[in-house]
UniProtKB/TrEMBL annotation:
Boundaries of every HotDog ACOT-type domain copy: 1-110
GO cellular component terms attached to this protein's record: cytosol
Protein name: Acyl-CoA thioesterase 11
Organism: Oryzias sinensis
Span of domain START: 185-354
Gene Ontology MF, one: long-chain fatty acyl-CoA hydrolase activity
Amino acid sequence: VMTERTRSRIQAAEMSFLHRVAGYNKASMFIFYILESSRLCKAHPTLRTIDMFHFRGPSHIGDRLVLKAIVNNSFKHSMEVGVCAEAYQGREPLRHINSAFMTFEVLDNESKPCTLPRIRPEPVDGKRRYVEAIARKKIRLDRKYIISCKQPQVSLSVPWDPSNQMYLSYNNVSALKLMDTRNNWVLTSEKNKVRLYTLEENHMLCFKVEMYVSVPAEQSFHLLSDLTRRKEWDRHYEQCEVIIQVDEEDTLYRVVTPSVSKGGKGKDFILLASRRKPCDSRDPYLIALRSVTLPTHPPTEDYTRGEVQCAGFTIREESDSVTKLTYYNQATPGVLPYISTDIAGLSSSFYCTFSACSRFLETKEFSEPF
């Protein structure tokens, strides 16, 4: 058993160097993780996962960066290392610009995980980080289960028929409103003012994408309300057809998406889309989506039936010509494969998709409101 002080003063490890290029280099943080984790295990560790890479602010040309790393906890075959990146120039105060967590393991000559030494946390802050690392490990395991399972154990879709249409539509919109009111979102990635956030609580993983477009809110609402046009900007929408036009506010669609793996089956979704205009100037436009089942459209052998629990857009008018557009999705096994690399910070495909959405909104016209 090792104390935090014994493990080579990892908690006090600092490295400062002149950052000569604009932007922050992830490779620097990765190398620093390697150095700090190797002191505990007395071997060269192997990166297993990257978790919660938070971009809090930019670094600038001429900044000096201070990287602080510490092993938060060690488990039987893995350890979690946290790093905080701060920047400063001259005598100005330190600016917290990045933080992240990485999980490492040590492999033997047969590529099997080695047993790692345990640590005994120091009081107060050390104990807090020790406990939080356990919680993050549980979240990672839960997320791994969600991603790996082929089908959820309990169906997320509910049967639709005219008798329960009003009830389903109300719940559809209410679920999106509830997600919109949450205030503990964590910024995961940002590129050219398109921001990706995640929220993990109560065994639930949600994500949202936020951006501003130079299009009136009402026009954005009508263009995005028609899901048959989404394939014009979203490469995940391969096909979209209207099944039932229930009324002016609710429509049933069948959406087909391509496979995320080479040679795999595509997915299809049966979605209820519920549209709502603002009741007053403080409310946003809403486009809520959720999966339903229809006896006329059962699963087929050609496609894997996917499910959406809660997703959609909130569209807020910032001015006559500027709109804040936010897309929400409560991740499910049918959805996560399309966004998992973005959530892990390994790609920025979300940016390409929503930049295409912005161009679509700014160049297209709508004829008649729904």
